[in-house]
Amino acid sequence: MNIVFMGTPDFAVPTLDKLYNSKHKILAVVTATDKSSGRGQKIKYSAIKKYALKNNIPILQPSSLSSEQFKNELINLKADVYIVVAFRILPKKVFSIPKYGSINAHASILPKYRGPAPIHWAIYNGEIETGVTTFKIDKKVDTGTILLQNKIPILPKDNVGTMYEKLKYLAADSIIETIDNIDNLKPIIQDEKLVSKAPKIKTEMGKINFHKTGKQIINQIRAFTPSPGAFIFLGVARLKIIDAEFVKESNTIPGIIKKIDKKQFGIECENGKILPTTVQSAGKRKMAVGDFMNGFDISKFKRLKDE
């Protein structure tokens, strides 16, 4: 099958790699325009562009997905299908060009967690499994007919970082399975009654509210690790909590901070105590909580503000 691949971040690379090394042919990749960053405003290529350059795959980087020039470039490629992983929203005049349409891999079991942050929200809400859905792209985001779904468990110690790694390889396997069997798959219309949303994650959402239960707080920490981070304020200093444990207790006062010993402190929540194990202060590397306490007097804080 002749394919145009569309994607930008490293999440999409395993899928492109699997397609490139399959019986299918990659005609071109479409990826984001180059960005400049850092003091010297160095040009930064997307992960997909780097892969394409390394493997001599033609590259398209349209500034507008709606332009006639881009549309005509795609038509001239004569692809059978467009494969889309972690890319922008395509206009109908683009996604409807090829014979088999455009197929997207989404990191959730649709119709659950439609939106840009499905991995974060699945963990935040305490789900015990997630997966990848391949579906035909339609006008509304993440609403197209389902072609295939593969599920994997979310383990108690998983966070966004570990699930991201697992799901990017599952996405690759799912796309290959989909296009290898495309003529035999029976598309399934999504049940709108089962829809849940996965809106964009913002940094301020990471602030921990200790009026929640221990389970909710631990899930929040997992859902915001490694990025953008779950955090507390010790005075004006922001401290990210990378990992923590929960101890169930009664008669707690949410937000109370207690130094347990030289290497541990706890913060009381609705039904017990959160014990940070790995933390990261602004501008510093992540470290064990004991190492953090060697250079920080936690005993001067009695209760978190705004709790």
Overview of the molecule:
The chain has 2 domains: 2-194, Rossmann fold (3-Layer(aba) Sandwich), CATH 3.40.50; 203-300, Formyl transferase, C-terminal domain (Methionyl-tRNA Fmet Formyltransferase, Chain A, domain 2, Roll). Helix content is 24%, strand content 28%. It contains 8 helices and 15 strands. It has helices spanning 13-20, 47-54, 68-77, 92-95, 118-124, 160-180, 214-223, 289-294, and strands at residues 2-7, 25-30, 35-37, 42-44, 59-60, 81-85, 102-106, 129-136, 146-153, 231-234, 237-248, 257-261, 264-269, 272-281, 287-288. The strands form 3 sheets. A 7-stranded mixed β-sheet has the order 5-2-1-6-7-8-9. Strands 10, 11, 12, 13, 14 and 15 form a 6-stranded antiparallel β-sheet that branches. Strand 3 and strand 4 form a beta hairpin. Helix 1 runs parallel beside helix 6 and helix 5 (118-124) runs antiparallel to helix 7. The protein is elongated.
Q: What is this structure, in a nutshell?
A:
The chain is α/β, with parallel strands linked by helices and 307 residues long. It is built from 8 helices and 15 strands.
In CATH, the topology of the largest domain is named: Rossmann fold
Major β-sheet, in short?
7 strands, mixed
Strand order of the largest sheet: 5-2-1-6-7-8-9
How many structural domains does the protein architecture include?
2
Structural class, please?
alpha/beta
The low-pLDDT segments are none
CATH hierarchy class name of the largest domain = Alpha Beta
Question: What is the β-strand count?
Answer: 15
Please trace the helix and strand order, writing H or E for each element: EHEEEHEHEHEHEEHHEEEEEEH
Identify the CATH architecture of the largest domain: 3-Layer(aba) Sandwich
What is the tally of helical segments? 8
Binned, the helix content reads 10-25%
Instruction: State the fourth-level CATH superfamily of the largest domain.
Output: Formyl transferase, N-terminal domain
On the 0-100 scale, what is the average pLDDT? 96
